[in-house]
Amino acid sequence: MELIDIGANLTHSGFSKDLEQVLHRALEAGVAGFVVTGTDERESIRAQALAAHNPGHMRSTAGFHPHMARTFGADSESVLRELAATDEVVAIGETGLDFYRNHSPPEVQERVFERHLELAAELGLPVFLHQRDAHRRFTEMIRAYRDQLVGGVAHCFTGDAATARAYLDLDLHIGVTGWICDDRRGQAVREAIREIPPDRLMIETDCPYLLPRDLNPTDAGLPVKNRRNEPCLLPHIARTVARHAGRDPEEVAASTTAVARRFFHMEG
How does strand 89-98 pair with strand 3-8? Predict the structure, then answer.
């Protein structure tokens, strides 16, 4: 089973002491590629540098998570442009809207999101998208730019079947995480997964966040007392996706990997 983790926050401080071991466990588990997520200026720079250090199996994104929209400054766009000019950066983002906690004011989130969409359209790069409690405004803004965009992926999908159909109507791809492994919170995603065609589906861990709740980390071979999600758990997510989609796990692995390679231009 060969897999690609399309959303891995590998520059997170939680990986600072043992990243090499984390990557080794992932490769041993069959995770052949990673897209390292950029969430603000500093993390986008670090993500690109990490991908450049691992050219055989890493790419990165460059952008400002909606939580961090308030930090988008006068020089931020030029930084994103510089990063996007490198071979490693394959998408603009993480970007979008998150009205759940409003760590950045909604009007600031919208302004920065629009700038990301404009930049992605201009540079011919897809967008790596985040949405929480902002579905209506999010889809409105995507729709206004969709004809100019080469593509987009609704990362870390936690919605229901209607939300999945709305994203598919916008010709977006959808990224599914270990949220689907949660008996309580993941029920909507489990019901939505059959709505997502194989050529639109990718999988991810969003590590170190979203450790699958149906999995004991020590049983998965992770260090004792480790409550951190890791890319090596992606096969578990793939099997859970397959079970609820009524598909063969090997076929899910093959198709999601092929889709990720095409979408992010990860030849290999």
Answer: unpaired
Structure tokens given for 76: 């931020």
Beta strands across the sheet bearing 31-36: 3-8, 31-36, 58-62, 89-98, 127-132, 152-154, 173-176, 201-203
- The DSSP annotation for 73-125 comes to -TTHHHHHHHHHTSSSEEEEEEEEEETTT-SS-HHHHHHHHHHHHHHHHHHT-
The residues facing 203 across adjacent strands are: 176
Helix (H, G, I), strand (E, B) or coil at 138: helix
Q: Which two tokens stand for residue 114?
A: 């629009």
What is the SS3 assignment for 167-228?
A: HHHCCCEEEECHHHHCCCCCHHHHHHHHHCCHHHEEECCCECCCCCCCCCCCCCCCCCCCCC
Half-sphere exposure of 159 (CA within 13 A, CB side): 22
Calpha distance 236→71 (Å, rounded):
36
> Where are the domains positioned within the chain?
3-264
Both tokens assigned to 90: 């394959």
Using CA of residue 124, residue 128, residue 131, residue 135, what is the dihedral sign? Answer: positive
* pLDDT, tens only, 228-259: 999 999 999 999 999 999 999 999 999 999 99
Tokens of 129: 């998208």
Chain mean pLDDT for the chain: 95
CATH topology (fold) of 3-264 = TIM Barrel (3.20.20)
25-56, pLDDT tens digit by residue? 999 999 999 999 999 999 999 999 999 999 98
The half-sphere exposure of 191 on its side-chain side, counting CA atoms within 13 A, is 10
